[in-house]
Write a structure and sequence with these properties.
247 residues; alpha/beta; 7 helices; 9 strands; 18% strand
Amino acid sequence: MKPKIFIQNNKEAMARAIADGIVQLSIQAIINNRNVYLALSGGSTPRILFEMLAKEPYSGAIDWDYFHLFWGDERCVPADHADSNYGMTAASLLDHINIPSRNVHRLIGEADPESEATRYAREMKALIPLNENGLPRFDWVFLGMGSDGHTASLFPDTEELNNDEDLCIVARHPQSGQKRISFTLPLINAASRISFLVTGGAKHQIADTILRQREGYQQYPAAMVAPTEGQLEWYLDKDAANMLEES
């Protein structure tokens, strides 16, 4: 199934489109009396989204009692560290909404990475409905993409990229060496809905290569995201979609 591509004028428009989708999920959760499982990402665009969700009209339109929040990857740092994805989410969203603490499932960056990857996988399998292959099936997974084509903390040409046995792995950033905990591709691809949020001119060439499946595109982790039974979406701003719009 080909991905759906949505080109937005700017980050704010992109965030608004996602926020509207979360409102719809909230409405359906209330109607069906079922929980919603989201996997969040870090970055500047998600921060704009979180700040938007924390304010009206969205803050009053979403029943957070139904939402369970997880993180697709996390740096191995404490929650109050500037690099923490959880810390960014807490400051921009969680501290401003009424969400039960039991619904917030933090990847504990300061814990032993290997042990935390195992614990987080166990927590997901115990809580989230499983698909026929025994994988937790998120309702919606949000992903970013680096200018090197990485997504979550799955980097090109690393052995962690080929792990198809675990739900979470410990990876190292190729340049900084910083340890991170990340979802694996099978877990990501089990989701009902996956959305890339991609902004900035630095990513327009890699976005074009992946979405048009140009030569060598398979080497990029972002190109390996292909839901087994779900919808794949790419939200791009004008700068990131520059080459896509030219042809």
